[in-house]
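Tutorial, part two.
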Amino acid sequence: MKRVVVLMSCVAFLFMAPKVWASDYQLRIQTAVPSASMYYQTVERLGDRIETLSQGQIKVTVYADGGVVDAFEILEAVHDGIVEGGMAWTHYWSGMHPAGLLFSAPTAGLGIGLDEMAVMSWAWEGEGNELYARFFQEELGYDIRGYLTMPMGPEPFGWFKEEFHSLDELTRMRFRSPPGIPAQSFREMGMRVVSMPGGEIVPSAQRGVIDAAEWISPGDDRLLGLADVWDYYYLEGLHQAISIGDIYINNTWYNNLPDHLQAVIEESMKAMIADQKLMNVHINSYALNELVEEYGTKLRTTPDEYYEAYMEASSRVISGYAEDNEFFKEVLDSMTEYARYAVPYQTRANKVFYEMGQTALDSGAIEDY
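Running the prediction step on this input gives:
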């Protein structure tokens, strides 16, 4: 009788206790950013969401830059299964294929007026994700599925040693730019450009090697220490007005997941888009205020002639790549077709928000810097 009571008690406990899932799958994500970066925090949120929605069946570990491999080794590591996931920007791989920039940093809106949310819409609602999969799996030959999940633009033009008022003054400065098409576009418009990793920017500024530099955003620029070496900050820039970070997953690992866990991955990636946009506004708004109020940063407005010069230069560079690379042209044509519908709508919609904000600033309802 005692045995029956004990058995019944055990059965009742199993049904009443919360279900605890074993971790059947491991997802290690190597990021290209330090742990202090807001983008590292976004990837951590992604990991928490995947673990929660999978009820622990997927165990996620996130590594800061260099934790397992260095930033520019991430694609190979995900392909080879050294880690199951990675985070970087597709334009990191534009040296292997120029179309990488079209997905994550279509400079100056490709000269056709695309804004960041229009590009995200093209990716998730148009044919962008299909072309993105082909980019990794067919053009580069990697066993990877990519996700455009971290819209983080517009990136500021950058930090400058001294104020400038004309394109002529700008072209005399030595400017740190990201590599690839943005750097080529700056050179095309006559600027003296060098490219270097983020960690080298401040030491190079202190040695007088460069006069100005761009990085990512007020939040990350503050962490990197750019306000310690330069006073003048220009927010309006075109080189990466659209900047979209991405997540990579080993495709074989993904295909071995049961359907419900593949759904967890897909929905978690979509939720990451909202995470990033909300964090951008929050973190960068407070960071910019801190830069001005506590660091004495001087905000300046980029001269109007810069916009026309950069857009003309980048259009020439992009046209050259389209002539030389068939897949680049296919992606560019797809984005151009999407822009026919998105740009007229987005331009008018965005104008509403701009006019509301500018009116509030002009009236004194909100104090400007």
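Residues 326-363 form the longest helix (38 residues). In part three we will examine how such features are distributed along the chain.
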